[in-house]
């Protein structure tokens, strides 16, 4: 992204923190997160910080409160450094594009359904606020699946936003929101979903955003297979992002599952229609990648089978955005 490009945040001069974000109640909830949560759970706040700081592209007015001050400051500092260094990509741009891609594909999937209400399952929902920000969910039942303590703190943070901030005017957009406390490692999450009201025969959009690569390989495959098995009888859509092998191979990487060919993988699981996009493709661009020298444009020009960029010897780290339906 060039310095002059219109896709960099205009506000990078100064970080603004709202009153609710700096209130004692919100600070105390975030202190708990920092002291007690592991990196898996805390990754939810990092993601929310990305949405908050890319607010010129992503409309998520509660993301900042859900992210918390320290994650906002840390990402803000990275973005500021990128800007000062004239970096071609500003930190967080992948998150912004990814969020916008999931938003647009989710809306299209719901529009394609003939019956109402639709179900939307956010697996590893983290600090996702779609139920509060997307009008397209007005006839949908949204299920948020994540660890119990994460869902509890999230509910408390949302309560603080609602009571203390008139300016935010936050209200539920979804028809209903059901929080399902479950650890995907325990294998009973579909059962828990069903006990919470999820109906396998109802049209469903599965949203797996920023979750699969945090899981061990076997578990990620089990999750995908469980979803695919339930999608055979009714029209459902799976939206998921996948890292390729080079993306998880850094020595200090916390990422585990990867797929170089997630489109083939999902086809082999029984999905009849699979569409794969890369960051920077026409449907995964959103005007945020205007510099033609951008890393993502370079990657898109190289064959997907290529693991190393022949020009500079760097690994081809890719994030695939995949939509699958039956
Ligand atoms: C990077 S965050 C992404 C959150 C959200 N989907 C988003 O895009 O903002 C990953 C989320 O997956 C959740 N997660 C990771 N492993 C999990 C597991 N075994 N069971 C339930 N949730 C899990 C974490 O708690 C976290 O909220």
UniProtKB/TrEMBL annotation:
Signal sequence interval, chain numbering: none
Pfam families: LCM (PF04072)
Keyword entries, A-Z: Methyltransferase, Transferase
InterPro entries the UniProt entry points to: Ppm1/Ppm2/Tcmp (IPR007213), SAM_mthyl_Trfase_ML2640-like (IPR011610)
Highest taxon in the source lineage: Eukaryota
Any single biological process term in GO: methylation
GO molecular function, one term: methyltransferase activity
The protein's name in its UniProt record: S-adenosyl-L-methionine-dependent methyltransferase
Lineage: Eukaryota, Viridiplantae, Streptophyta, Embryophyta, Tracheophyta
